Amino acid sequence: MRFPPRISRIGAAAAVLSALLVGGTVTATPAAAAVGDICYSDLPSQAYDTLGLIARGGPYPYSQDGTVFQNREGVLPKQTSAYYHEYTVKTPGSSTRGARRIITGKQYEEDYYTSDHYATFDLIDFGC
User: Considering 85, 109, 110, 117, which one is annotated as catalytic?
Assistant: First the structure.
């Protein structure tokens, strides 16, 4: 399993503290407001299957799995164009891929879960 570091969150907290100490202002970005946390144990069972496939490098059930996620909505932290990749989390009873995905970030090995087709994301916390 992957254990995402908290470097980006520590950096964000330091920036907020620094701004407050020197009398600056802090503005929330859409990405900061839309990215939450989810415990690994709270994921749907199908997400465990997808994370296992990612850890093994496939094979994936859908041709779109493993492709670059563009982050067009700008909800995830801004990164280079090929930083994020998307993988389908099967939705029981759905005749399509459904709305659930795991989005991975390669450099920091973070994993995000979305159940609403990219409207919101939760960083997966593997420690709980």
Answer: 117
19: part of which helix (H) or strand (E)? Answer: helix 7-21
Q: Can 110 be counted among the known catalytic residues? A: no
Q: What's the whole-number average pLDDT of the chain?
A: 81
**Cα dist from 82 to 39, 49, 90, 107, whole Å:** 26, 24, 24, 11
* Any domain includes 13: yes
pTM of the model: 0.73
44-91, pLDDT tens digit by residue?
999 999 999 999 999 999 999 999 999 998 999 999 989 999 999 999
**CATH code of 75's domain:** 3.10.450.30
- The catalytic position among 73, 86, 109, 110 is 86
User: Structural domain tally of the chain?
Assistant: 1
86 catalytic? Reply is: yes
Which residues form the domain of 21?
Answer: 7-125
